[in-house]
């Protein structure tokens, strides 16, 4: 199998952490790059949306997005990062919350890097941060018990999302109003799988 990836993608990082935690090693890594306005041609061949990660399987169509790939690799590894229902619904909701944080954070990056300066719209950027802030509040108030439970994909996704906020939006100081979440993240970030997958730069 081949994983089309970028070392700075937080969606890819979810997969890399899963691989490290489950011992998967037989996946070829193919570096890709691109933006919504200039997608990578090689990625487009695998994923018509032009987005990474994309997992080219030995048999069957390429899989995307990160949540699909994570569930597939979890099954391939015979792991239990997606628990049985009813706990599964909490895990999936937490993963969706974390991915929502990433979606909004990435849009903020694109606004600064891709959109011409005279066309940027600050209220739109702040609207994206509003989504992130509300999601952080929810993680702090509703999901602390789950975060401190048995390792699952909800925890991995949350840790990768928080790591991306540090990587691209450190000036927003997300920890300031989220002490429980900050304490949890500090412990989780020390895991070897997280240390090995820190984005460069």
From TrEMBL:
What Pfam families has UniProt attached to this entry? GST_C_2 (PF13410), GST_N_2 (PF13409)
- Matching InterPro entries, A to Z? Glutathione-S-Trfase_C_sf, Glutathione_S-Trfase_N, Thioredoxin-like_sf
- Alphabetical list of SUPFAM superfamilies matching this protein: GST C-terminal domain-like (SSF47616), Thioredoxin-like (SSF52833)
Positions of the GST N-terminal domain? 1-81
Q: Which CDD domains match?
A: GST_C_6 (cd03205), GST_N_3 (cd03049)
Which PROSITE patterns does the record cross-reference, listed alphabetically?
A: GST_NTER
Name it. Answer: Glutathione S-transferase
Q: Lineage of the source organism?
A: Bacteria, Pseudomonadati, Pseudomonadota, Alphaproteobacteria, Rhodobacterales
């Amino acid at each position: 199998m081949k994983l089309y990836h970028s070392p700075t993608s937080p969606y890819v990082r979810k997969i890399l952490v899963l691989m490290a935690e489950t011992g998967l090693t037989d996946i070829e890594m193919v570096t890709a790059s691109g933006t919504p306005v200039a997608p990578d041609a090689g990625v487009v061949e695998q994923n018509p949306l032009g987005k990474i990660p994309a997992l080219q399987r030995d048999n069957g169509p390429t899989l995307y997005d990160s949540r699909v790939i994570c569930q597939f690799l979890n099954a391939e590894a015979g792991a239990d990062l997606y628990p049985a229902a009813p706990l599964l619904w909490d895990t999936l909701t937490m993963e969706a919350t974390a991915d929502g944080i990433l979606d909004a954070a990435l849009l903020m990056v694109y606004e600064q890097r891709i959109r011409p300066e005279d066309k940027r719209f600050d209220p739109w950027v702040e609207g994206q941060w509003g989504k992130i802030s509300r999601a952080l509040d929810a993680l702090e108030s509703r999901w602390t018990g789950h975060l401190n439970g048995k390792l699952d994909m909800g925890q991995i996704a949350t840790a990768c999302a928080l790591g991306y906020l540090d990587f691209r939006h450190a000036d927003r100081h997300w920890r300031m109003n989220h002490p429980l979440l900050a304490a949890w993240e500090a412990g989780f970030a020390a895991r070897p799988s997280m240390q090995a997958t820190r984005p460069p730069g």
